[in-house]
Every structure is written in C-alpha cells, then in structure tokens.
C-alpha cells in the first residue's frame, strides 16, 4: 500500500522554544499529566496518548529488528536450458513459466531455435509458383479399375485364366496341315500334326500331345480337297496302340457320323488303314479319333494318302 501525503498542518503549533520544551519534559518526568486522570475527558486523552505511544514503539521495534535493509531491492536473472528465474536481493525469487497458446510467458530456447530457423527460410520462386498453379489445375487421378474411366494397375490381367491357357497351348501347336505330292505313284500325302487335334482334356507338348483322361479321345476333322479321295489313313503314336484308332465320314452341319471307315471296330496306330476310299465332298469331313492308354503315350500326328477321284 502506498504511503499517503503528509499533513502540512502538523508543525503549525509545534513548540520550538528550548526552555518551554525543558519545562514540559520535567513535568512529564514528574508525572504531572497523571493528575488529569481524575477527569473523564482528560482520562480518555491520556489513554489515547498511551496507545499512540505503544504504536510508535512497535513501529520502532519492527524497523529495528525485522527490516534487514532499507536499501533498494536488486533484481537479477538465472537462465539455463530448462528454466528462467528472477532473483531478489531481499525477497523471494520468482520462476517465469514458458509461454503457452493461451498464456503469456518466457520464450524457451526451443522456441528461439524454431523462430530463427523459420526466419531463415526463403520464399518460393515465381517458377515454383507457376508449377504449383499448374499442378493444382491437373485433373484428379481417377483411381484404379478396369472400366474406360479408370487406370489399370501395372500387374492387371486383361485376359481370363482360360484365355491365357489357350494362348499357351496354341503356342505349342505346330504349323497347319501339310500337303505333299508323291510324284512316283501320282498320289498326294496330307500331314496333320498332333497339335491340331482337340479334346477337353488334351495336354500339349512341343510337337506332340497326350490326354489326361485315358478314356478320352483326341479328334481332328479334315475337310478334304475338291476332286480327291482318301485311300489310306495312318495315325502316328509314340507307342503302338491296339484298337484305339477310328475313322469316320463326318457331317459338319449336324456334327454326326455318316459312316465308319476302316476296320470298323477300332484300328491300330502306326498302321496303314484302308479307308474304303472316302471321296471329299462339301459339308463333310474325314474324322480321325485316337485313344491313348496313358499320359506317357503321345500322339505325334496322322497322314492321309489321296488320289484323284
């Protein structure tokens, strides 16, 4: 609490005469003022003067024993990596907390480093600004998918597994049917590679095929050549197969047999079979079927011997 202004009238009637002051002091020492105690009004004033005397004595005691210094307070600071303290020369020290989002405080060394680093940053160039603007204007990536408005991933399969298997099998197939003239006897030979045959359970290999189902047949229909007839048929297998070969006159429009050619109850592979001269005709085909006893037996192909009608 601040000290109030001093009353300018306090010294107006102050006794300064030394003789009078000495006489007053002598009267006080003799206790003359105590004679007034018998009068109620003067007794009250004597009481108040005594109280004031006690208050003055207490002030002197306090100033003399509890106030260690009446000089100016000196302040200093102690700062380290974790705190900031204000030191007082004649009072308690105060620790200043770090500033927060919602309260003032001291700036920490981490705050200082962050501000210094941010101040050292440079702005972007006009070229970078243009690049950012151009990039912002780009169309948003449509996402991955297989529709016309989507982008495909790098490992996306665009064909089915069945199509992939068919392509792999087709790559193993040999070239198409061959046609050769036998000038010595005036006949022609048609060579049909084994990879031209078909079956739901066919297994392709290089230049040959087998069947994963021993009860299944490998089949091929040769459409013929105008003006020719087949007089001999021969199926080539890696091992002789008894009674596993059959030849038919085949109607293409209905996928049905018109007649059995050859032995009738099953012929042998690796053997020339007389086919009773099938004449090539529109809408018909010469069907060859071959059964294999195991997956280790392969169909290599077949040949037909032709002559003019």
Structure notes:
There is one protein chain. With 309 residues, this protein is α+β, with helices and mostly antiparallel strands. It has a domain at 173-308: Jelly Rolls, CATH 2.60.120. 23% of the residues lie in helices and 28% in strands. The protein is built from five helices and 14 strands. The longest helix is centred in the N-terminal third of the chain and has 26 residues, at 40-65. The radius of gyration is 63 Å and the shape is rod-shaped.
Features of the shown structure:
single chain; 309 residues; alpha+beta; Jelly Rolls; five-stranded antiparallel sheet; four-stranded antiparallel sheet
In N-to-C order, the SSE pattern is HHEEEHHHEEEEEEEEEEE
- Within the largest sheet, what's the order of strands? 4-5-14-9-12
Number of strands: 14
pLDDT averaged residue by residue: 86
Regions with little confidence, pLDDT below 50 for 5+ residues:
none
- The CATH architecture of the domain at 173-308 is Sandwich
Tell me the structural class.
alpha+beta
CATH topology of the domain at 173-308: Jelly Rolls
Could you tell me the strand content as a percent range? 25-35%
Give the end-to-end Cα distance, rounded to a whole number of Å: 141 Å
Number of helix segments?
5
Helix content: 10-25%
Radius of gyration: 63 Å
The first-level CATH class of the domain at 173-308 is given as Mainly Beta
Coarse morphology: rod-shaped
Which sheet architecture does the biggest sheet show? Answer: 5 strands, antiparallel
